[in-house]
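Quick one before lunch.
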Amino acid sequence: MSIETTAATGRRSRVVVVTGANRGIGRAIAERFVAAGDKVATIYRSGDLPEGVFGAVADVTDSAAVDAAFSQIEAELGPVEVLVANAGITRDTLLMRMSDEDFADVIDVNLTGTFRCVRRASKGMIKGRFGRIVLISSVIGLYGGAGQVNYSASKAALVGVARSITREIGSRGITANVVAPGFIDTDMTAALPEAKQDEYKKAIPAGRFADPSEVAAAVEFLSSDESGYISGAVIPVDGGLGMGH
Ligand code: NDP
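Model of the NDP complex:
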């Protein structure tokens, strides 16, 4: 475990991996850790990265590539202490039209991809007797969403992943929590028709979509030393849309 402290906060500087930090919520999370003085890496497919983020290219659907990316990050920055599993996709369509492929692809990235990263990251965390695992789920995981059977199933399952990790390795200084964002201004929500966006905004008590930095703030807290007694929790960042459901 690193004992360096960051100039920005005076706290311990950790090695953090955020998957999919090239854009959207993952990018905002990586930027927040960089600003706090952490050593930040990402596992990503393509695109440009925020200043100060070390990139290892891998698709999270490829176990060997994920393992190799972690090895590359460990060689460059040291043992990984914080994992934020953020990479995710949607393939929205109505149940009757959803193909096996639509379902399997979303599960492979959002659930199995997360599992691959968590499994690899946990090795070093167990050895170092410290770890913070944050899984990016969605309000849709617990609330449901018409046309989102695949996505909702993949995101709900992350709660089981975090809680089982907590029971399995929670005694080793490792926490695993879920952040469930509501509607956040990124490419994913920009793809929704404008009428649909307005409809959602009416249903959100806060009356607006969030900035990705508002998700990053919750993730940073759950990754801190101070959050060591919070594990297996689902933290909504949804302007009151789901209120835990
Ligand atoms: P974006 O579509 O903007 O970004 C998705 C990120 O995931 C990209 O970096 C993308 O990489 C990466 N990714 C997708 N598939 C893979 C893969 N197979 N291997 C590696 N990386 C991959 O989405 P958001 O930033 O909006 O979403 C981030 C997370 O937050 C997702 O898990 C999403 O489900 C969740 N979320 C988003 C909400 C929102 O309102 N935006 C609400 C609730 C949850 P690439 O650029 O290569 O495609």
